[in-house]
Here is the input.
Amino acid sequence: MSAYPPSPGDDLDRDQRLMVRIGGGDREAFEQLHDRFGAPLMHFLHGLCRDRALAEDLVQETFLRAWVAAPRWRPTGRVSTWLFQIARRRFFSRHTRRRMRREREIEAHARLARAGEAGPVDRLVGSDERERLHRALAGLSPRLRTVFVLIRLVGLGYRETAEILDLRLGTVKSRMAAAEAKLRKTLGAP
Here is the structure.
């Protein structure tokens, strides 16, 4: 063992060797990389989003992307820089999707408000039926109710609803079918 502290190049070489091993499918090397950079990435991402659960998800996404990209990785720079770039892109990608979804939801509500004071349900049914329908809607789970409201009451399409909720189209369709089936059962409709 040397009496001199390791040079910064020693860490660079060690990280690059880890990446080469990870590129070959070495799980132990991957765990070492995670041990080395997991906490710093967590601090970085938590500082960006101020949400511990989201930061944890983003750290895992970062390492997943690193694992997948490792066979194509080339030692052109510091591994730490590469990992932090992945983490930053994951954060901004997630942040942008959330912001766009909120903007679409706001626009959907604004369109409904512009349609007039009476909503689609109010225009179609009398006050007793409207009250029954509102109670039945309240009985749906939030996931089913959200899909039903966006499609049937706001008038959005299935694709736009999927984009707003960041879901696959098939998931939106199955939730809509489940919501309608539950409403039919609750309201006693055929």
User: Anything to note?
Assistant: Confidence is low (pLDDT under 50) at residues 1-8, 116-125.
